[in-house]
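Input.
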Amino acid sequence: MKTTITTYYIGFILAMVGIFMLISAMVGFLYHDGSGSILLVTGFLIIGIGLFPMIFIPRKQRLTIREAIFIVAGSWLVINFAGAIPFYLYGTPFTITNAIFESFSGFTTTGATILEKIEIIPKGLLFWRSMTHWIGGIGIIVFALSILPTMGHVSRSLFRQEYTGLASPPSFPRAKDIARVVVLVYVGLTALESLLLMVAGVSIFESVTTAFGTIATGGFSPRDNSIAAYNSISVEMIVLVFMVISGINFAFLYSLLFKRRAKLFGGETIRFYLVLLLVSTLITVASIKGFNYLRWGEAFRYGIFQVVSVGTSTGFATADSSVWRPSAQLILVFLALICATAGSTSGGIKVDRIVLFAKLVNIRIKQVIHPNIVTAVRIENQMIQLEFADKAMFFIVFYLFIVITATLMITLTGVKVIEAFTGSVACMGNVGPGLGKVGSMGNYNSVPDTAKYILSAVMLIGRLEIFGLLLPLTPEFWRK
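Output.
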């Protein structure tokens, strides 16, 4: 593996992040809040560092699979630390640990925050905070646009990793089609939600930053009390609908909206995702009615929003779920583990793997009763090879192992078990809020610094779906 080539592409990605930071600087200057100069200087510094290796290193047209994996993992690490610089330069409450935590939480679209008072932070810095969500949510596609097309046959195999090998070919875009997916789906949804929120009475600044957090399924809000601050059913419904949409496979949305090759309820993973949200909502509403809310309308209003928010790994809040009945809380923890579909901006295990797991269990049961039966695993009418099925099952086991390990490590720092466990689940699934002090109306500021670094690592592992980050750490990766 040639480190010069990997440096070239990592520098390119870093320079792109610097450009987005300059956009945030413009917002800071627009509001005259003092953050513009911090973001401007940092942005130019990051662009300079990113462009420097590109001056001396020639661009390579083809990359090896190892170089590509290292570029993706290295880029994520670099941009997360670079994104923390403006926070740290701003000062209190951003210590170096808090700045790194906030940046990792932003880029990984987790939405866990250390901020207790969000609204006192300058607008430019809040815009950058939300911008990290938008960059992180679009991350896999940005990398595809800037890296994958240069790798020939490698591009398709790497991009398929985001779809866990389960997406059917008709709905799967070629590498050269990804630009249209970005422009027509991701950017289009962001603009549409921003417009609708403005119509609902939300300011331009808060409409855009809220849309960033929704479409990226991130959850950073410019308000202290998240979406609850607006106390508006129309705002909640707009955000709710776009959270559900953002949890759906982007290639599927592209085919549905622009190619007319997909039916909304035609895919079994999409049906499972929507039914899961519906059933979870009904159970949650029935659980909190009479215990937390006297009226069915109130229970449904707050129950469905929290279920969808957690089930799509967004993390916005309209109520404090930490005071809900344990049965409702367990539903939220369950959803935080699974989240939405592969190929979306959502985190978690993904419903695609759960569907595959259920099919494999069904096959094993049949084989016990009929040992000689020959069966095949099919997803969306496509036969799934055993290697993909085994990889998905290994991913689920490894995913839960990381959650348990992180929980144990965090409890050793003095954090209570319920907060350590739900915090680990929320950060691994890029959901954000857990329960207790780290709940939907709480924050992670009281968590010890050591635990914050653990959770930051967990966020990145979850965002890169484990293997993307861990492979470069194995000795086998570096062997010829």
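Residues 160-173 have pLDDT under 50 and may be disordered.
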